[in-house]
Amino acid sequence: MSELSPSHLAGQVQGHLNNTCTRAIYTTAARTGTMAEKMCKCNRWVVSVQSAFESDDFEKMYREAVQCITPEDFCDITKKQHQEDVLQCILGRLLLRHATHMFTGTPWNEIQFGRTEKGKPFLLNPPHTTFGLNITHQGDFVGFASSCTSSVGVDVMRLDKERAGKTADDYINSMAKSASPDELRMMRSQPTEAMKMTMFYRYWCLKEAFLKATGDGIIDDLSRINFKVDMNDRYRPGCFVTSTTVLMDDKLQSQWIFEESFVNGNHAAAVCKESVLPRWCLFGKDPNARVFFSKVSFDTLLKHASHLNPLPDNASNAYKEFVAKPRRTF
Predict the structure, then answer these.
(1) Which of 288, 289, 306, 315 is the most exposed place for a label (fewest CB within 10 A)?
(2) Domain 4'-phosphopantetheinyl transferase: where (predicted)?
(3) pTM of the prediction?
């Protein structure tokens, strides 16, 4: 994992303090009914897959985790080929339930999720919630974002340095049908290979977050989506860029705002959320507020979990099947 710059470390500390304070408030507020509805629910979390693997208690946590997701999720997830893919999906399911429990106080076994026709998860129980949740996984991280309104999208993108002999222009050309003419010009005009690739990943991250927030998934012509970035706002580890805008079919989509930041030195993140926010939202009170991504550990996600999928021998066979799968490199 790349070393973090001092400015980014300071940002991570600020994000950690914001989220720690928020978690403490939820613990109390969840018991007071409607009071919890008036608390800001804007959180940004990541779980490191590599750190989870390196934990001394990994086997114990894995065996617990596979019993704390639904039988349907367990069946689908464990069909995946690589250990990393299985673990990323499990962590994503745990993040959604963990957040819902924190925000509402609903017992783990009473939380229910459904999916839209396009596959986006949404809360069935508790009903009538007004906040939004979204997850993503790529590279070493599983990312999570929540918002005080129902629509939010998040994407995390690893800025790969190894490109299998391809140049930055090769990558940009491969994206040509998915980028607007303005985006292509911006990518191609960057002075170095590294800057071209960073811009490539930046646009891809933004488009993923936008499509997840709108619930559209993948649309036929991604070039209809045109992001405008302000190059005066430095895009690098430690940044928190909110000046980016998006046009759809040449029309400004002012109902959406974006947060761009970095999880670490080589993982970029983008969050898309609604621009109209309730008065109790941190961002509604202060448009210049910043909530950076803070790291959450595997064991933290299991603290309030309960079994939904009890397995024989405390999931010992499930763990054996898991470790028999091949690993992939990050």
Answers:
(1) 288
(2) 151-272
(3) 0.88
